Amino acid sequence: QVQLVESGGGLVQPGGSLRLSCARSGRTFSRYAMGWFRRAPGKEREFVAAISWSGGNTYYSDSVKGRFTISRDNAKNTVNLQMNSLKPEDTAVYYCAAAAAIYNDYTRPIEYNYWGQGTQVAVSS
After folding, report:
1. Alpha carbon of residue 72 to chain centroid
2. Cα dist. 45→36, 42, 95 in Å?
3. pLDDT value at residue 28
């Protein structure tokens, strides 16, 4: 089974930056689309960003577009999420997800086959 491990979370002041990383290990598929989702306190999991297997296409939620950047290095089996201009509303547990294939929509959690355990991001003064 593919294993995903997130890292890079922590506590940051509003306006600050964090860089999350997701490392993949175990048996892999030849192509993975990768996504980042988050779950804020008292809310359901929501889409943050995604990237196609080749890295040629990226997708962002309206709330993070212009502030967050998703990238990948297939040779290293890593996916990153650079988060700038962080706001208190960005506080959440962030999850990395992998999909062997996207059948409909990169923003739908059901499209993803594997999930990491999550890393906590807290934005507070």
Report:
1. 11
2. 10, 10, 9
3. 58
Backbone φ and ψ of 117, nearest 5°:
-85, -15
pLDDT at 2 (0 to 100): 82
Is 88 in a helix, a strand, or coil? helix
CB within 8 A of 44, min separation 6: which ones? Answer: none
pLDDT digits (tens, 9 = 90+) for 1-32: 788 999 999 999 999 999 999 998 865 555 78
Q: Which strands form 18-25's sheet, in the order they lie side by side?
A: 3-7, 18-25, 78-83, 68-73
Bridge partner residues of 4 (DSSP): 24
Going by the DSSP 8-state scheme, the letter that residue 107 receives in this structure is: T
CA distance 53 to 66: 22
- Taking residues 89-117, report their average pLDDT: 94
Condensed to tens digits (0 to 9), the pLDDT of residues 102-111 reads 888 999 999 9
Distance CA 73, CA 85 (A): 24
Task: For residue 39, give the 3-state DSSP assignment.
Answer: strand
